[in-house]
Amino acid sequence: MNLAMGTVKGHVAAILVALNVSSRAEAIAAAMKMGWASLLTDAQGAPRDA
């Protein structure tokens, strides 16, 4: 998949606005708070024991 850097930056900016945050780190924290993301997986995405 080839994506222009401007396309990626535009999508990231839109996500930050939608989540009302100012950084990617804040976006990750917001996603985790909403249950959309978790750190409870290994490098391949398989669930780990908590």
Query: Secondary-structure element sequence?
Result: HH
What does the largest sheet look like? Answer: none
What's the multimeric state? Answer: single chain
Instruction: List unreliable stretches of 5+ residues.
Output: none
Individual helix count: 2
Would you tell me the overall average pLDDT? 88
Structure description:
With 50 residues, this protein is mostly helical. Helices cover 50% and strands 0% of the residues. It has helices spanning 5-19, 24-33. Helix 1 crosses helix 2. The longest helix has 15 residues, at 5-19. The chain is flat. The termini are far apart. The model has no long low-confidence stretch (mean pLDDT 88).
SSE layout and pairings?
Blueprint: H1 5-19, H2 24-33
Provide the descriptors you would attach to this structure in a database record.
mainly alpha, 50 residues, single chain, flat
Tell me briefly what this model is.
The protein is an all-alpha fold and about 50 residues long. It has helices spanning about 5-20, 25-35. The chain is built from two helices and no strands.
